[in-house]
Specification:
It contains eleven helices and ten strands. With 359 residues, the protein is an alpha/beta fold. α8 crosses α11 and α9 runs parallel beside α11. Bound molecules: 5-amino-5-deoxy-1-O-phosphono-D-mannitol (M6R). 5-amino-5-deoxy-1-O-phosphono-D-mannitol (M6R) binds next to α2 and α9. Homodimer.
């Protein structure tokens, strides 16, 4: 069943480029994005978006908050479902309420969706499991088509959620008439390259295996990045902690000097997401500060960075989302190799279940 892979997680990382094509099929056309799930009047009366989810799906929501504001020009708020439920949220009917869930059964996300429906909001689910509770309840669903995900650590589900959200932000931008044709074409071109990027990113697997030897000790990990690479940093830290049981935190790179840098010394490993197409110099100066305090730096970047102790050289891309997807694969492989080296069962980590159906 594992098809020659050591773990389902490994198989699912390797499947990502194929399932991504399924996610895109019928939705990415020559010069536009199309969703047959969404009817003509879907955006009537909508002037804002609220996204709600848990765990990795919450990180996908955070990524999309940058994309929706950039491409659709709609204000976005992102909520952790377990917080949203009890904060007495103010809900207005001009809000499109989007829930994101791999399983479609996460208790907090399902309850949040019920609250939004009760308040009369238009609701959209982005989900991997057809006919799940969330799918049955939402007004409309876009399925991510990742196929069955068995590893507790979400990989291909996250990748396809981000892709659906990116396509959706472009689709909304076109529908709202806020995008130039040239911008739409640039996004479409990048979207078309994602499966190849996911496939080529696997070349880095051996390097991750080798590096995993060095990154087992120390008192913790910082994953840092800016913009969409900040939620990717959160996701990298979550992946590592849930399967390796090592302490890892994700931060916006610019937050270091507001507290976290106090932890920096040689035993602190910094995994720096340093894309070339987005705020490279800003991120670099944050990493330099950590290096000056002796943190051990693993830079993930297409650009050689002299101060890095270790390096994962990514490919050059002309769009931040392509750098995003490649770095996502690197984080997944690195977390998996570290966990395997520690002797852990990466598919069934301790204390965790694939689907969290209780509060
Ligand atoms: O099925 P869901 O997407 O609603 O699940 C949400 C989280 O429980 C899930 O993403 C969890 O954080 C993963 N194990 C992370 O890899």
């Amino acid at each position: 069943q594992k098809g020659g892979y050591r773990f389902f997680m490994e198989k699912e990382i390797y499947e990502q480029y194929e399932v991504m094509s399924d996610t895109m099929i019928g939705r990415v056309l020559d010069n536009e994005i199309s969703f047959e799930e969404i009817d003509e009047n879907f955006l009537d009366g909508i002037s804002r978006i609220k996204l709600c989810a848990c765990g990795t799906s919450y990180h996908a929501a955070l990524v999309s908050s940058y994309l929706f504001e950039r491409l659709s020009k709609l204000p976005v708020q992102v909520e952790i479902a377990s917080e949203f439920r009890y904060k007495e949220p103010l809900l207005t009917k001009d809000t499109l309420f989007i829930v994101i869930s791999q399983s479609g059964e996460t208790a907090d996300t399902l309850e949040a969706l019920k609250m939004a429906k009760h308040a009369g909001l238009k609701t959209l689910a982005i989900c991997n499991v057809d006919n799940s509770s969330i799918v049955r309840l939402a007004d409309t669903t876009i399925l991510t088509r990742a196929g069955i995900e068995k590893g507790v650590a979400s990989t291909k589900a996250f990748a396809t959620q981000v892709m659906v959200l990116w396509m959706l932000s472009l689709y909304f931008g076109k529908r709202c008439g806020v995008l130039e044709d040239s911008q739409i074409n640039k996004e479409l071109d990048a979207i078309g390259h994602v499966p190849t990027v996911l496939k080529n990113a696997l070349d880095i697997h051996e390097k991750c295996k080798r590096l995993s030897k060095r990154y087992l000790h120390g008192h913790g990990f910082f994953f840092i990045g800016r913009d969409i690479f900040y939620p990717l940093a959160l996701e990298g830290a979550l992946k590592l902690k849930e399967i390796s049981y090592l302490h890892a935190e994700g931060y916006p790179a610019g937050e270091m000097k507001h507290g976290p840098i106090a932890l920096a010394d040689a035993e602190l490993f910094t995994i720096a997401l340093m894309p070339k197409t987005l705020l490279y110099d800003k991120t670099k100066s944050n990493v330099e500060e950590l290096s000056a305090r002796d943190s051990t730096i693993l830079a993930i970047s297409p650009e050689i960075f002299d101060l890095a102790d270790d390096f994962i050289l990514t490919h050059n891309h002309n769009h931040p989302m392509l750098e995003f997807f490649e770095m996502m694969v690197v984080e997944q492989l690195l977390a998996m190799e570290i966990a395997i080296r520690l002797g852990n069962d990466v598919d069934m980590p301790r204390n965790l279940a694939k689907s969290v159906t209780v509060e």
